[in-house]
Amino acid sequence: MQLKLLTIENQDPTFNSIRITNHSRGFPMRLLGFMLLFLAIVISFSIINMFKIRYLGSQNLVEGAHTLIRSCFQGQNSLQDWIEPPSTYMHTLDDNELLWRASFVPQIKEYPFKRSPKIAFMFLTRGPLPFAPLWEKFFKGNEEFYTIYVHSMPSYRSNFSTSSVFYQKQIRSQVVEWGMMSMCDAERRLLANALLDISNEWFVLLSEACIPLQNFKIIYRYISRSRFSFMGAFDEPGPYGRGRYDARMLPEVTIGQWRKGSQWFEANRKLAVDIIKDVKYYPKFERFCRNLCYVDEHYFPTMLTIQSPYSLANRTLTYVDWSKGGAHPARFGKGDITSEFFRKLHQDHTCVYNNQPTSLCFLFARKFAPDTLDLLLQNSTQFFGY
Ligand SMILES: *[C@@H]1O[C@H](CO)[C@@H](O)[C@H](O)[C@H]1NC(C)=O
Ligand SMILES: *[C@@H]1O[C@H](CO)[C@@H](O)[C@H](O)[C@H]1NC(C)=O
Ligand SMILES: *[C@@H]1O[C@H](CO)[C@@H](O)[C@H](O)[C@H]1NC(C)=O
């Protein structure tokens, strides 16, 4: 056998030369190099240890060895190791791995440590964040109470300075198509990444055209004290509501359970986990809510209405103006930015908050043209109180 193999090898000149390089020259030299390096490490380690024994006593040596072992193997030895969020957003998990990991839920409700619950602000964008300077102003001074996640097109590279709150807040992303399941996938990807940080308790989805309408303290109080999550969910008769339902979704989804709602939601941690762990409704919506169905307006509202109707406020926190008709809401330009505009936005609405009527219905608004930034920044104290 051995001989036969050798003969074949020798007949093949390429094989032969490779064999020679690997075997006779490269391999032993490299091996020798490694062995010498290893020997050097062992010797220096022994010298350090001898030094330690002599001057620090053997007790410290044992502790030193423990520290070394811990840092080598990155073991989960203290509570801190379990509750620390990942050090970088650029992990190597693919979507399946990420959703699985994010679905871990503690079974004991009380946290055995001091936890300051945070709001995760999740930005679903194409590329740049034109209102970043306004958001920076809004976030300033509230570092303990928020986290930020940005999902942009995979080809887009952001360029935030190290002092920006958006610095290195991009998560691993995939291409998103308007109205398609890839949109819900991106939202689930944002939720899953945010769930990896155990301090995140509320999850808000925003777009690059969104701005905050109140200061941080008011928004935090409004969301944290609400008994319901702000997911728009209503039963709309007619072609753009029930008309998009497909009976092939039975038996998982009936026409009576079919809901529509704005894509821009706020969800608590429990509902966020429900959304990312779903395998029951996902395939139905993926197959039977395509194209003119606009799955991002139906999947989460319908699924959560079936599973947790009493957790939903059934309204969104993000103001949009649909009064001009069409598939896209109105876009506000420079001419719209007046104190009257924002005063009306608050006074002309009433809604229910924790079963009480209120006129504070919207905490965010869209869509604003990028060139409104300067006006908004200059007058943000007057308009929004930040
Ligand atoms: C990134 O930002 C820096 C300073 O803010 C600027 O000098 C540089 O040109 C920017 N790079 C790109 C690719 O936009
Ligand atoms: C939201 O709607 C569901 C039914 O779709 C209902 O059971 C629930 O009570 C509503 N939530 C509120 C706060 O009214
Ligand atoms: C916004 O601020 C600028 C500069 O302070 C001021 O000139 C302008 O009148 C303000 N606009 C509104 C709508 O209040």
TrEMBL record:
Signal peptide: none
Subcellular location, principal: membrane
Pfam family, any one: Branch
Database matches in InterPro entries: BC10-like, Glyco_trans_14
Recorded GO MF terms: glycosyltransferase activity
Ranges that cross the membrane: 31-51
Highest taxon listed in the record's lineage: Eukaryota
Subcellular location: Membrane
GO CC annotation: membrane
Topology with respect to the bilayer: Single-pass type II membrane protein
Keywords: Glycoprotein, Glycosyltransferase, Membrane, Transferase, Transmembrane, Transmembrane helix
Protein name, UniProt field: Core-2/I-branching beta-1,6-N-acetylglucosaminyltransferase family protein
Organism for this UniProt entry: Deinandra increscens subsp. villosa
